[in-house]
TrEMBL record:
Keyword tags: Chaperone, Cytoplasm, Protein transport, Translocation, Transport
Protein name: Protein-export protein SecB
Family annotation (SUPFAM superfamilies): SecB-like (SSF54611)
Pfam family, one: SecB
GO biological process: protein folding; protein tetramerization; protein transport
Family per record: Belongs to the SecB family.
Subunit field text: Homotetramer, a dimer of dimers. One homotetramer interacts with 1 SecA dimer.
Its job: One of the proteins required for the normal export of preproteins out of the cell cytoplasm. It is a molecular chaperone that binds to a subset of precursor proteins, maintaining them in a translocation-competent state. It also specifically binds to its receptor SecA.
Length: 170
């Protein structure tokens, strides 16, 4: 009886070794690039601040080494005066992170890099933009939360439509 239990334990251990170990860990979060411009200062400070915010967010990822991936969120905020159209400031942040990911492959890995990792990084990018804008002498710019899941699905849909519309070679 004891031998049967030991045999089952050995079989379970062998089965666990065959499956890749699922692992997700943040190795490092860092600013890859940062820029702030206030091309019309100090004149822009003489106007009543009526901002019109233009926001652009992009993500990309690359494999750095085995099971190590870099994910970068690029946030660009351009604020112009709502009435005059004068540029108040332009803030750009590339917030990056190194993620150790193993046991996830294919579409699931793509989803993790395209939606989950950017969700981890966005609060850092948001704080960095706010800090830059504040240091530039402007009122805080608190960016609204971003649904990276929806952005990822939208990008996948757009890629699928592009693939369908591409001419096929015969």
């Amino acid at each position: 009886m004891a031998e049967d239990n030991k045999g089952n334990a050995d079989a379970q251990a062998a089965g666990q070794q065959e499956k890749p170990q699922l692992q997700f860990a943040v190795q490092r979060i860092y600013v890859k690039d940062i820029s702030f411009e206030a091309p019309n200062s100090p004149a822009v400070f003489a106007q009543q601040f009526k901002p019109k915010v233009g926001l652009d967010i992009d993500t990309n990822s690359s494999k750095v080494a085995d099971d190590l991936y870099e994910v970068v969120i690029k946030v660009t905020a351009q604020v112009t005066h709502a009435e005059s159209g004068t540029t108040c400031f332009l803030a750009e942040v590339q917030q990056a992170g190194l993620f150790r990911i193993s046991g996830i492959e294919g579409d699931q890995l793509d989803h993790t890099l395209g939606a989950f990792c950017p969700n981890v990084l966005f609060p850092y990018a948001r704080e960095c933009v706010d800090n830059l804008v504040n240091r530039g002498g402007f009122p805080p710019l608190m960016l609204a939360p971003v649904n990276f899941e929806a952005l990822y699905l939208q990008k996948k849909r757009k890629d699928a439509e592009s693939a369908e519309q591409a001419p096929t070679a015969h």
